[in-house]
Amino acid sequence: GRLNALAAVELALHPANAVIQVQAPSGQPVEGASVSLIDETTGFRRESMTGTTGTATFEDILAGSYRIEVTQESKIAAQDLLQVQPDQTLELRLVTAEHRLFFPNMEQTP
């Protein structure tokens, strides 16, 4: 990551947090999804799994720009960008995409 002496002091004095809630298109919380928080500057990745409420929490993160990726069944189900400020707890709700199977050689029935 980009943790150096100055960043360590900043983190200790001004920690930031991000709370990500993952929901299905129906509005139901998604349990067991992998949520990645990726630093846009360094590429450093932190990961967390959603619990029964569909929530993943990242504590003590540095201020900066992050990409969030939600993975379900080895597929990216949702993603977004996040700008984190010092002394901030950010709450973000992401809705997963519906995965539909497509078989091009089979007839579709209404």
Keywords:
110 residues; elongated; three-stranded mixed sheet; 7 strands; four-stranded antiparallel sheet; 1 helix; disordered C terminus; mainly beta
Give a written overview of the molecule.
This protein is mostly beta strands. The strands form 2 sheets. A 4-stranded antiparallel sheet has the order 3-2-5-6, with no helix packed on it. A 3-stranded mixed sheet has the order 4-1-7, with no helix packed on it. The longest helix has 9 residues. The protein is elongated and about 45 Å long.
What structural category do the secondary elements indicate? mainly beta
**Uncertain spans:** 99-110
Q: Characterize the biggest β-sheet.
A: 4 strands, antiparallel
The ordered H/E elements are: HEEEEEEE
Figure out the total of helices. 1
Radius of gyration: 17 Å
Report the sheet-strand fraction. Answer: over 45%
The coarse silhouette is elongated
Q: Identify the strand order in the major beta sheet.
A: 3-2-5-6
Report mean pLDDT, rounded to a whole number: 81
Number of strands: 7
Give the termini distance in whole angstroms.
Answer: 51 Å
Helix content: under 10%
